[in-house]
Automatic annotation (TrEMBL):
Species assigned in the record: Cellulomonas xiejunii
Coiled coil: none
Name listed for the protein in its UniProt record: Carbohydrate ABC transporter permease
InterPro entries for this protein: MetI-like, MetI-like_sf
Chief localization: membrane
Transmembrane intervals: 30-51, 93-119, 131-150, 162-184, 205-228, 263-283
Signal sequence, start to end: none
Entry's localization field: Cell membrane
Gene3D superfamilies, per the entry: MetI-like (1.10.3720.10)
Topology relative to the membrane: Multi-pass membrane protein
Keyword entries, A-Z: Cell membrane, Membrane, Transmembrane, Transmembrane helix, Transport
SUPFAM superfamilies noted in UniProt: MetI-like
Length: 298
């Protein structure tokens, strides 16, 4: 049986070789290189997750025996109890939830409003250059601006979780506006014109016509903002002055110093902190893929 390599050719473009082969009967099969790459990527994600899960349920003696991938025997939850006490988990969890909720809501609201104004006024120079200005901010990572941000937040009294959430919103705006703008430019303007003929204002059109149609992209932006704020370590550790108001990722740094030999406690804390992010992603990943695909096409 022979196999035929598929190519796609469009007018004016160089033929593109696909990563799949088609058999003579029309049955498609994935190439061996793609399969190997997928297996390697899967193991790179699964192995650390498996080690974290098994280490969390081991006793302290089992966690230091050098058998990282062995199953816990017997299963112990002492690591979770100790991690709960050392990190004051309820308070850290509440602060992380506050920062994340403010970041997600603020990013979706501000980015959608800015993107709607830019997309519907693209022919006007001010809005077009505003888009380019926001786009350029994507190339300024937080570590480059860390010193100035720490000074400014301290001067205006924002060296707290509220200031961390505000900075998260600002750093998420560039990428979020890019996604929203690409999506809005693909929406039909006839619906907005019909609403205006019925007497609707610009805000009414956005609130009741445009924003509901942006639901898939809003979900995508919200998930990216959630992951960025929930898992962030550097910004809250530098901005928040009071150590009792730190988020969960910062509180876990205690296990890298005085409790460095209590691997079961450390991994139990890591598992409790990343569990919400894993659960959110498992239930919303289809919206991420749908939103990114629609934004790329439009």
């Amino acid at each position: 049986m022979t196999a035929q390599t598929l190519t796609t050719t469009t007018p004016g473009q160089v033929p593109v070789r696909r990563g799949r082969l088609r058999r003579r009967g029309g049955e498609e099969r994935t190439s061996r290189g793609t399969t190997i790459a997928l297996v390697v990527c899967t193991l790179a994600v699964f192995a650390p997750l498996y080690a974290t899960l098994t280490m969390s349920f081991k006793t302290t003696a089992q966690s230091v025996d050098g058998q990282v991938f062995s199953l816990p025997s017997p299963i112990s939850i002492d690591g979770f109890v100790e991690a709960w006490r050392l990190t004051n988990f309820p308070r850290g969890f509440a602060i992380s939830v506050f920062v994340t909720v403010v970041t997600v809501v603020g990013t979706v609201v501000l980015a959608s409003l800015a993107a709607y104004a830019i997309a519907r006024n693209w022919d006007r120079g001010f809005f077009r250059w505003s888009f380019y200005y926001l786009l350029a901010a994507m190339f300024l990572p937080f570590p480059v601006l860390a010193l100035s941000q720490v000074k400014l937040t301290g001067m205006v009294g924002l060296a707290n979780p509220g200031g961390v959430a505000l900075l998260h919103v600002m750093f998420q705006l560039s990428f979020s506006v890019l996604l929203f703008t690409a999506f809005i430019r693909g929406l039909p303007e006839e619906l907005e014109e019909s609403a205006r003929l019925d007497g609707a204002t610009t805000w009414t059109v956005f609130r009741y016509v445009v924003f509901p149609m942006m639901a898939p992209m809003s979900a995508t932006v919200a998930i990216f903002a959630f992951l960025a704020s929930w898992n962030d370590f550097m910004m809250p550790s530098l901005i928040t002055a009071d150590s009792t108001l730190q988020t969960l990722p910062v509180l876990q740094s205690v296990f890298q110093s005085q409790f460095s030999s209590s691997y079961n406690v450390a991994f139990a804390s890591y598992l409790m902190a990343m569990a919400p992010a894993i659960i959110v992603y498992l239930f919303t990943q289809r919206w991420v893929m749908a939103g990114v695909t629609q934004g790329a096409i439009k």
